[in-house]
Design goal:
By secondary structure, the protein is of the alpha+beta class. It is built from four helices and six strands, in the order βαβββαβααβ. Strands 1, 2, 3, 4, 5 and 6 form a six-stranded antiparallel beta sheet that branches.
Length: 169
């Protein structure tokens, strides 16, 4: 991939440990690194795959010329700076989780890379905030807009509630 290209990237952020503080700090950190952020509303959802405190989830859009590997490294560093423990189980409490949902309009699923991230089509707490900030953008693998995907989503299956974090951006 060409380092000179600017890519629109959608990130999924989540936390259920000191969540407001970690989400606020993560958005501030992303803003200092990538400046012009697009930030969705925040949603509260139950933990998935384990018993635990509810999560706060949102989607953040950035523009970057970083390669995918560079971006992964940058985001892992931000997670670590926020106390993320790499040795924790996949489904467990998190100080901060940042997932790359999309990277431009690339579909890397055929290469075994989870981009666009499969959770977009699976969880309301990913699809709804993405539809909020990018309703007309097209899912690179499915070919439908995020709003159309949300309109067809089983919204009763996953309960999410709008959650206000004052002065988030």
């Amino acid at each position: 991939m060409d380092n000179n290209l600017i890519h629109r990237v959608w990130l999924g952020l989540g936390s259920n440990i000191d969540a407001e503080k970690n989400i606020r700090s993560a958005v501030r950190t992303l803003k200092s690194k990538y400046s012009d952020l697009v930030v969705s509303p925040v949603y509260e959802s139950e933990a998935v795959g384990f018993e635990g405190d509810n999560f706060l989830k949102l989607v953040v859009g950035i523009q970057t010329d970083e390669t995918l590997d560079q971006l992964f490294a940058s985001l892992k560093s931000i997670e670590s700076d926020h106390g993320r423990k790499r040795e924790a189980e996949k489904f467990s409490a998190r100080t901060l989780d940042i997932d790359i949902l999309t990277y431009g309009d690339l579909d890397l699923t055929e290469q075994g890379v989870d981009i666009p991230r499969h959770e977009i089509l699976t969880y309301a707490f990913v699809l709804k905030p993405l539809a909020d900030v990018a309703p007309d953008e097209i899912h690179p693998h499915i070919g439908l807009s995020y709003q159309k995907l949300w309109d067809g989503f089983d919204q009763q299956a996953h309960s999410i509630v709008l959650y206000e974090i004052p002065n988030l951006t």
